[in-house]
Automatic annotation (TrEMBL):
The chain crosses the membrane at residues 58-86, 98-127, 162-182. It comes from Dasania phycosphaerae. InterPro entries: CCB3/YggT. Pfam families: CCB3_YggT (PF02325). Keywords: Membrane, Transmembrane, Transmembrane helix. Belongs to the YggT family. This is YggT family protein. One of its GO terms (cellular component) is membrane.
Amino acid sequence: MGALTEIGNLLIHTVFNLFLIAVLLRLLLQFARADFYNPVSQFLVKVTKPFLQPLRRVIPGFLGIDMAAVVLAVLAQMLAITLLLLMLGYGFANPLYLFMWSVLGCLGIVLNIYFFAILAVIILSWVSPGSYNPFVLLLNQLTEPVMTPFRKMLPSLGGLDLSPILVFLSINVLTIILKHLAAAAMMPMGVVIGI
């Protein structure tokens, strides 16, 4: 791989990774019913609105899920994979494989978002407990729907919350399953963002 190819690979990965995180984070925050007026939420809305607005005219929501955001994330992932495949000299992929790889990549990004969000919540609870920072409040709102079922399963330990351990274990199990599904779908390594 030449230097220009490596630089192009880095730039495509970075730009599309940031865009996919913004779109999927907006979707997850809507799903968690997080504060829409939080400055971080408003930033995500401003970044993704030019891309989501035209899609929303055509694609309605379904059962409270912003299907336009789902379609946008899958299309962005498909575009990134296609650009990377072409740049690396593989040519165009079969559209069915491209779609499967894109869905798996988006699921991988969602798992990564939750992994790092929960890790950040844990660290911030030690460093700055009870903080009213908008970013911290939004992280708590994002992770709470995932943490609550695990908190209900575990008995109370007097202020010690062990539910993140179960959540991390579940995320790692799902990541292993995702990687095996990616291998079964003959996904070329290094071209799908999120896996």
